[in-house]
Amino acid sequence: MPWIPGQPSLEDWENRFPSCDAVPTVRCEDLSPDAFRAEFMSKNLPVMITGITDDWRARREWVTEDGQPDVVAMSELFGDAKVLVVDCDEAIDTDLKRREMPFREFASWWQSSETRKRAAAGAAAREKLYVKDWNFVGDFPAYGAYDTPPHVRDDWLNDCGSNEDDKNENENENENENENENENENENENENENENENDDARLRPGSFRFVYLGVEGTWTPMHVDVARSYSWSANVCGRKKWLMVPPSRVKYLRHRDGSGRLIPDVRAARLASARADFPDASLAAPLTVHQPPGALLFVPSCWAHQVHNETDCLSINHNWFNDCTFGVSSAYLRDESRTIRLGLPDRDDRADGVLCQRLLARKAGINQLHLGSIGSWGLRRVLDSTCASEANSEALKREKRHRARRLANVFQPLRHLVHETHFFATRDVFEREFGEFNEGNEYSYRSCHPGVGSLLGLVVSAPRARSPTEETSRARKEADAFVESFDVD
What we know:
Layout: H1 10-16, E1 25-27, H2 33-41, E2 47-50, H3 57-61, H4 71-78, E3 82-87, E4 99-102, H5 103-111, H6 113-121, E5 129-134, H7 136-139, H8 156-159, H9 164-180, H10 186-203, E6 209-214, E7 219-223, E8 230-237, E9 240-245, H11 272-277, E10 287-291, E11 296-299, E12 304-309, E13 313-320, H12 326-343, H13 347-350, H14 353-364, H15 368-386, H16 394-434, H17 445-448, H18 450-461, H19 468-484
Parallel strand pairs: 1-2
Antiparallel strand pairs: 2-11, 3-4, 3-5, 5-6, 6-13, 7-12, 8-11, 8-13, 9-10, 9-12
Helix pairs in contact: 4-5, 12-14, 12-16, 15-16, 15-19, 16-18, 18-19
């Protein structure tokens, strides 16, 4: 049960999302970013956009003349990079089954005479190694392999904390602090720098921008993306086949034991061995999508999917979200956090917010602290754009109404996160003193975090009461206050 009246659960989100019978294909020049947001992203519907990779450096330097992955050239450029490789012939694809190797070693395997011999005998006889989740941008940030398409550029998950304004602001703050420090405080200064670095790691998850490279026949089992985010996947070369299940039908894919596990291969749904554990999987009715080279597929939030490389294939993949799906991620992490807490047998462990958030990050990829930090950053960015002008044209009024809707998308889940963080802190103290807590008890978030109310007033009134500069400054201070509310040490 939600702890705040009217707070939607993850199941509510899944049921309210629309479905479709086919995935449309549109040329990139025929679909503007605004139209993409209105017709697909906001409605949570998939679309395939072609002509995306034509100008990418990766397309020029990583692909042979006959349209195959140029592993020789890539090995010369990135041979020392460490990549995670999975053997798709293994029964289960987990982190424990993946092994790390230099890309040069993977390229040697790709080119080996044994590999070519197996390829000549047929794809079924060929060993199926697959490079997954290669954080290429993190390894080679200056290379510029591709430009994120404008349609999917509003990415809070990967952009949080990366804009230059934040960097410059932090640099100025550090300069002012250094001017006021005494010589006797040098050691404390070093300690504070280390603490700030730890804070950055604590408040931000890792990158979710990946390169995938696999031979024909490699595949990824059925899954839903990290924290119920969006994803986009662009084929630099090669072809993929996608089996996609809309959110309202994902329930049919789940294991009968109630664990939430999905059937790995929906193609086996009618086999007796699969029906024993996944009795309803045949009702999922997945959509089949064939993705050609140069095309980008937008995978909406909560859509389950499995992916097969129909040829040797090289692709760029991002997980991402923004205000449109922020509430879904919040609901998912709330459910997972509660499951983790209830699964811990020791009461002190259940009361250890840091432990629970670390376990949540290990299981879900990010935790509620990360989400709160990202949401606060995104809220500030939307507020900055809302407060940037005092002009009063009709077009600007429409834009401000649009920004107000975006603010509402973020503000309400953030309020819930603040509520739940303080709820746990209050409940844990209650349990230590009086035993088990009755979740029917009333709880007022305003008494614990009055700053939320003032921020709500700011959102409603902006930018009437103050100049844009003053409003932006106050918005930053109030939005940043959210981050402090998620530290449950």
